[in-house]
Structures are given as C-alpha cells and as structure tokens.
Amino acid sequence: MNAITRAVILVVVLQIATGVLLMTVYSPSTTTAWASVHYIQTRVPAGWFIRGLHHFASDFLIVLFVVHVAQRVVRAAYRDANARVWWATLAGAGLALALSLTGHLLPWDQEGYWGTHVRTNILARTPIVGPALAKLLVGGTEMGNLTLTRFYTLHVLILPAGLTWLTLRFLGVPTARPSPAPSPWKEEVPVGSCPSEREGEARTENLSARTLFPATVLLVIVLWAWVAHAIGASLLDAPADPASADYPARPEWHTRFLFQWLKAFEGPRAEVVGAIMIPGIVVAALLAFPFLRHVLSERSERRVVRFFAGLLAIGVIVLTGASYFADRNPSDAAVANAQLKQAQGEALGSSEQAVLRARQFKQQRVAAARMAARAFEIATQKGVPPEGPLRLLAEDAATAGPKLFAAHCAPCHRYNGHDGLSSVPQEPATSSDLAGFGTREWIRGLLENPMADRYFGRMRTPEGEPAHTRMSRFVEERLAGADDATRPALLADFDAAAEFLAAESGRTAPPVVLDRGREVFMAVCNECHTYDGRRTGTTHAPEMRGYGSGAWIELMIAEPDHETRYRSTGRERARMPSFKDRLSESQRRLIAEWLHGSVQ
C-alpha cells in the first residue's frame, strides 16, 4: 500500500469520525440546518475545529484522488490486472466529488443553496433522463426540506459507504508489475554488507515515506482548519433565501473549470452539450484506458494516454485560472471608461462588458459577505427564532433595509451611486442620493450646493423644470453677496447649522457648536423651515425638529405630502409618491432605520 493510498484511507477515516460528531448536533431541515451549523461553530466546544477538519478533509480527499489517478497514468497502472483498481480509483474520485457537492448544501446557506440550484437545473436539461433525475434528487420541482433530507442521506450514508468499500476493497491492492527476468550473474555484494541488510534498509526507507506523507497531509488539514478560524472564516454564508435570485453564486474551486467551460455554451441545448455530453465523453475515455492495449502498441498506447491526460490537466488548470481571472476586481479607470461609454449610448465591446460584469460581481460579493457577517453576528447575539434564520434577518434593518430600498426606493433614489445592494440600475436616478442622509457631511453639502446631483439637481417638475429651486436661489444670493472678508463667516455659519441639524437626527455635537448652530438656524433657516411647528416667515418648508432621525424618515416615506413635510399643494409640493399603502409600517421602519444607521 503506497503513501497516497494510506493518505486516502486516513482522510476517509477522518471524514467519517468528524462527520459522526457533526451528526450529533446537525438538524436537517430548512428552518434548523443553518442554525445548527451556527451552533456548532459558536457554542459546541471545539465545534469550529471539528467542522473545519471535516470541511478541509473533503477538499484534500479530492486532491488525493486526482494525484492517485495521475500516478497511475504515469506508471501505466491501468492495464490488465490493474484495470479494476483503475476504475475503482476513478469511481472514488467521483464519489469524493459527490460527497463535497452534497455536503455543500447541508448548511442551507446562500452559497450552498444557489450552487446546488444551478447544478440541478443543468441536470434537469439532460435529454430523456434529466428531468426525472433532477426531480428525484430535489424531491419535487422546488428545493426544500425533501432536497435537504435526500442530500443528507446521500452524504452521510450512501456515498460514504460506497467510498469506504472502494477504498478498502481496491485501492489497497498493490500495483501489479511484471517480474524481472532472473539475471545469470550473481549480484556483487559490497564489502561489509549483505543483501538482507540492504533489503531491510530499503524497507525502512519505504515505510518512512509511507508514514510521513499521510502524517503531513493530516498536519496540513489541522493547520488549515486552525488558520481559517484564526482569520475569522466561519465557512458559513448567510441563510439560504430562495427570493434572492441576484446572489453572486460561484462553484467550488474543484468545479470552477466547468463553470468557465460552460460560458462557451449559451442556451439550454448548448449547455447540455457542454455540461453533460462532452464531460461524459471525457469520462468514458478515461474508463477506456485499459482497453487501448488491444488496439494500439504498448508504446503508442502510453503516448496516447499521457497526451490525453496531460491535455485534460492543462485544460482544467487554464479554465480554472481563467475563471478566477474573469472575476478579478477591475481598475476604477477601466470601469469609469466603460460606464462613460454606456452613459453616452455607445456599444460596449466584449472586454468592456466583462469589466462591468466583474465590478458588479465584486460589489455583489462584498454585499453578500457583509450580509453573511451580519447574519452570523445577530444569530450569536440574539439566537435564531423557531421560524428560522430568515425571520431573524427579516427583522434586522441592516439586512432587510437595503433590500427594501432596492425594491421600492432605488427606481428614483441612489445609495452611494447604487441601489443599496451594490447594483447600479440601468435607468438614471431622478432624485437624491441618500447615503449618509442626515449626517453633518450630507447636510453641509446640501447647504452650499442644493442643486448638486446628490441633492435636488436631478429632481424635475411634471413640466420638466428643476424642482426645489427656492433654497438654491437663497444660497446663491448669500454666496454672491459675500466678499472675501465675510465669506469665511458665512461658511462657518453653514458648518454650525449642519452640526445642529445633524444632532437633530440623533447624532451628537459639541454644545458650543450646537448653540451657534441653533442661532444660525433660528435666524436664517426658520424663515422657511418650521421647528416645533413654528417659523418666522410665510414660505412653507419641511419641519426640522428631529430631521434625519428614524421617525422623521419613516413619516417622509409614508406621507411625503404630510403637512410637516412637503405638503400636497404649493409651488414646491411633494413629488414623491406615498408609500403608506405600499409598504407596511414594519417595512417603512426598516428602511428608515437602515438609512439612519448605515452611514458610510
């Protein structure tokens, strides 16, 4: 039994041992799976370590089988008596891959859910048997409890049993080698040694190699699990949400090559050719290696096998590298150039489209990572309710707020230039950018340049004229009337007023600044804007008491035409539609809390 086989057996044993331990806590249902994995990671003593060993041992098992296959190709250990072992090795590699893919779904998180969703959809497109196989695997037409139960059964019972039997039955069989012809000459024995001594030394060296390699593999797995935990990698994405179809899914590292390969096959039929037929031909060719000796000479056979295997290995490496390269974060200059051409209505080339896709993917991955971290954090703080982790996220402003903003507010507004979920809508914004709304910086910019695109610059009346121009004219007049001597004092007044209004949103400022800001507001701004329902002038502008707070924003969302906001009459009346009947009170509150709390 060589070193690689010993390492395979060791990793299989490790997988079984850690898997049994995880089974004592894991609960396979859509409402409890994520919570149970989170419990393993955070509450079970050394649970993170056990799960880390199980996770990374799965990856190493695939690597070891690939190395085992490559070793047999190099040694031509697929002929005659070795044929059954060759087929068992290929089957073992397939089972190791299947174990990884089925285990990927068990945490019932976003990454596992959407990766499995893509794979089962491809399987369903396979001619004749595809729909039936996909339905059998999924347990119906939609992924749910039955899917999780069937994948769990495959992962903990059927696949491990098959892999264990193959490993013990075939992989431990020594490679058959032709016996060397006996030499007519006696071997010369060096002085001071004898054949038995040299044979003993050789056996000791082989035993050391066979022991050292498996031990090294085990050590690397242990270190990898420890390092992953040390750098904060929980190996757990946000809870699976079937409604979030924009999740930036990518396959695991060992199938990235297939993901890149499928980009060349567009359409359902072409995808079947790329994902099912051609890979099936490749597998059939590998299985046929033992039969080549019947049609080719020994020398030609070895050349064909090595050429085919080498070409396959190069293809996998190149496609995997290309997949990761395509997802790299492009430079800001390249993105800006592509966005400029897109804004000007010019046709984008393939490279420019790839740049925009890569940037959008990176933004979505950042948003997904942020959501995963948030889910992990609030589950640790509050626990997961009986209804499942999605209920926990649905009541969390940091998670639900941007989703609701993207669905209901982003058609007009932006948040740092995007829709709140890192995607940029194709239609241009028609209202203000609300990132940092109510902060000192946001208000300060508004006071000095109200007609900037970030504020009122994009707003239009039904006639197409600029909206909310009164404040702009007021600011322009004051700036135009200030000379070099008075301008610093005017800008200082802007600063003080911004600090005062930012404090109204629940943000604090030094008392002296607040006192000065209150004086400026009451002397200047209160002519139009009410404060506690009072103003000094006749022009009506929104109430500034509590401006930018969660309650202020919530009322603005519900009734922008409210008497304390922009009203429904007047020259600069409310242009924003009411969401009182479109969103529930809870949904409005979540958006308001997110806008108030997620200052960037």
CATH topology of the largest domain: Cytochrome Bc1 Complex, Chain C
Distance between the termini: 59 Å
Query: Going by CATH, what is the homologous superfamily of the largest domain?
Result: Cytochrome Bc1 Complex, Chain C
| Total DSSP helices | 21
Mean pLDDT: 88
- Category from helices, strands and their pairing: mainly alpha
What percent of residues are in strands? under 5%
Radius of gyration: 33 Å
Which sheet architecture does the biggest sheet show?
A: none
Can you give a write-up of this model?
- The chain has 600 residues and is an all-alpha fold.
- It has 3 domains: 207 residues, Cytochrome Bc1 Complex, Chain C; 64 residues, no CATH class; 158 residues, no CATH class.
- It is 60% helix and 0% strand.
- Helix 1 runs antiparallel to helix 7 and helix 4 packs antiparallel against helix 7.
- The longest helix is centred in the middle third of the chain and has 36 residues.
- The two termini are 59 Å apart.
Condensed summary:
By secondary structure, the protein is mainly α. The chain has helices at residues 3-23, 33-42, 47-74, 83-105, 110-124, 130-138, 145-171, 195-230, 256-262, 268-287, 298-326, 332-343, 350-382, 389-394, 397-409, 440-448, 470-480, 487-504, 511-523, 550-558, 585-597.
